[in-house]
Design a protein that fits this description.
The protein is an alpha/beta fold. The chain is built from seven helices and seven strands; from the N terminus they run E-E-H-H-H-E-E-E-H-E-H-H-E-H. InterPro entries: Hypoxan-DNA_Glyclase, Uracil-DNA_glycosylase-like, Uracil-DNA_glycosylase-like_sf.
Amino acid sequence: MMSAVILQGLPAQVNTQCRVLVLGSMPGAVSLHEARYYAHPRNRFWPVMAALCGFDATSDYTQRMQHLQRAGAGVWDVIGQCQRSGSLDAAIVRGSEVANPLPALIAGLPALQVIACNGGAAHAAFQRWVQPALPVVAAALPVLALPSTSPANAAWSLPRLLEAWGQLRPWLGEPEPPTTRHCGG
């Protein structure tokens, strides 16, 4: 059995126009090694978000992240540091978790309308460490517990994931440009 090592998560990928904050638990080994969110080739996060936001899931990482942010979505994790061997949430050493400063991030996102937890572990960690520390206004935001896109969640097919994650559609998409009214003619 591998011994647990101390892992440091990835930085938040959000901008001030973020309407949907997608929170994972802690990046897997491949993502940490490549310093890219959802880098495991069998993780379905990018195909799901590409389908919901209308971009090519096979484009390079920088382009995918730009498309995601233009659609109003941002990505981070609830846990910023922990001890774990391997990639599974179940392998996180209980008591080693250090939460990311999500209350401060959320307070700085004026357009935020919904928080989406990618999997049960992310949702449980959010409820444990983040929810109690949120200001009243932020605590009123809807928090969706969505099925994990991880390859470990093989019971959920891509079509089933798309259906469940489709709850995010009302908040995703490029914002409409302001309309201009012309007077007279």
